[in-house]
UniProtKB/TrEMBL annotation:
Descriptive protein name: Amino acid transporter transmembrane domain-containing protein
Membrane topology: Multi-pass membrane protein
Keyword Hydrolase: no
Membrane spanning stretches: 51-72, 78-100, 130-151, 157-178, 190-211, 237-260, 272-294, 314-335, 356-378, 384-406, 418-437
Length: 469
């Protein structure tokens, strides 16, 4: 499949040329590396193999920690503290295994860049279309929720200084401009800014709700005791929607394919994964528990609105770069999917030609435009987050990874370990399918209820969306 030279990586019984070890300058002019996806990477084109393992950690964290963490306290309010934490840990374990499977699959199949390539290997042309479109839609929907989060942020900072529809348009334009940066290596510095921004903001929020007398949405007169509970009895639709919000908080796993494909050394991916999942899960549990403990049912969605008016502005101000970077990355991921699909196998993919730039800007602009429409049409943050997690997050975080293990290991010796992993892979596929169906139902019901409530947000609204709770 690939030309055998001295610089080979062996994993899973398949050999492939490791482009991180091959100097193209010894072979042909300005060619600096040969990649199974991008072909010849040259000095006069973008370097698609420039992400180190630390950069991979922060890119992976930024695909996850951002919009998802802002919905965790509300999830605990719906499920109760103990069931909420247990469900979060269970989904963390499942998605961590899914992430590990991504890394192993990439090493065995160097020609895989994204989930669409996985689909082609698993189910041929149908799988290529299904997984590719699902991933692209997921990224665009996440970008839409990021645009909505930015609009909420700008409303909070300006005390609703302009029509919300204007803020949504401004957020979409900013996401398009930054998302048009060509490579993840160049975006990684933005990811550092974004992750520091969002973590600082939620840390301030956590401290603020702990020292304040009461959350912003609670009655401001008389004694106040947070009404948090260990367990609750939610209706089925609410419970499924809450689980979908947790899935969304971990649903950046398919984007790991993009990240590992642009790493200088893909074999270091597992190291990056361990750091990412550990930091992320600890953050989710800490923020979710503390904010819910002090706010109870008066927690806002997004959670940054749970503090008082002044602290809400401070938290949103600090979080703004983090929300913008989340939007940027998912517009970039969606655009990169279409870009590679259009130009793969041509000289324009890795060279700064006119065709290269017209295609790239067209992809980023189109993805940003669709994300803008989604943010304007479904301006309910919590409902949009749970809908994305249910309909698309489970579809691309659970079922494909279970199928990937079966694809690579079906012909292996039937040992007890093999049988255990077989049952685990089947469990991942079945549980993902259940969460997708039930969660989508719960999310749609929640969005409809929000529209029916008095004062609920409407499509292309000018109303202030920073005071939802």
């Amino acid at each position: 499949m690939f030309r055998k030279e001295k610089n080979l990586v062996e994993d899973g019984g398949e050999n492939y040329l490791d482009p991180t070890l091959t100097s193209g300058t010894e072979r042909r002019g300005s060619v600096v590396a040969q990649d199974a996806v991008f072909g010849e990477i040259t000095e006069d084109g973008p370097n698609y193999r420039a992400v180190g393992w630390k950069g991979a950690v922060v890119l992976m964290l930024k695909t996850q920690v951002g919009l998802g963490v802002l919905s965790i306290p509300e999830v605990f309010d719906i499920l109760g503290l103990i069931p909420g934490v247990l469900c979060l840990i269970a989904i963390a374990i499942c998605t961590s295994w899914s992430g590990y499977t991504v890394g192993k699959f990439k090493l065995r199949h160097a020609d895989v860049y994204g989930l669409d390539d996985v689909g082609r290997k698993l189910m041929g042309p149908f799988g290529y279309q299904l997984f590719g479109i699902a991933f692209a839609l997921f990224c665009i929907f996440v970008a839409g929720s990021g645009i909505l989060g930015i609009a909420t942020d700008l409303n909070a900072l300006s005390s609703h200084g302009a029509c919300t529809a204007i803020f949504v348009a401004v957020a979409a334009m900013a996401g398009f401009l930054l998302g048009s940066i060509q490579t993840l290596g160049k975006i990684s510095w933005l990811a550092w800014v974004g992750i520091i921004s969002i973590l600082t903001s939620i840390l301030i929020l956590t401290i603020a709700v702990g020292v304040q007398d009461r959350p912003a949405a609670a009655p401001q007169e008389g004694p106040f005791v947070a009404d948090w509970t260990y367990t609750t009895s939610p209706d089925a639709a609410s419970a499924f929607a809450a689980l979908s919000s947790i899935v969304f908080a971990y649903a950046g796993v398919p984007a790991y394919f993009n990240i590992v494909s642009e790493m200088r050394e893909p074999r270091h991916f597992t190291r990056s994964l361990i750091w990412c999942q550990s930091i992320m899960t600890a953050t989710y549990i800490t923020i979710g528990v503390v904010v819910y403990y002090y706010c109870g049912s008066y927690v806002a969605s997004p959670a940054l609105g749970s503090a008082g008016p002044l602290l809400k502005k401070i938290c949103y101000g600090i979080a703004l770069p983090g929300l913008l970077v989340s939007t940027t990355m998912y517009i970039h991921f969606a655009a990169k999917y279409f870009f590679i699909r259009f130009l793969r196998g041509t000289e324009h993919l890795a060279r700064n030609t006119k065709t290269h730039w017209v295609t790239w800007i067209g992809c980023t602009g189109s993805c940003a435009a669709i994300a803008y429409i989604i943010a304007s049409a479904i301006p309910v943050f919590g409902g949009l987050v749970s809908l994305i997690g249910a309909l698309l997050g489970t579809l691309i975080c659970f079922q494909p990874m279970g199928a990937m293990w079966l694809y690579d290991n079906w012909k292996q010796e039937r040992t007890p370990k093999w049988m255990l992993m077989l049952f685990w892979s089947l469990f991942i596929i079945i549980s993902g399918t259940f969460l997708m169906i039930s969660g989508t139902y719960g999310s749609v019901v929640g969005i409809i209820d929000s529209y029916n409530e008095t004062g609920g947000s409407s499509a292309w609204t000018c109303a202030d969306n920073s005071n939802s709770s």
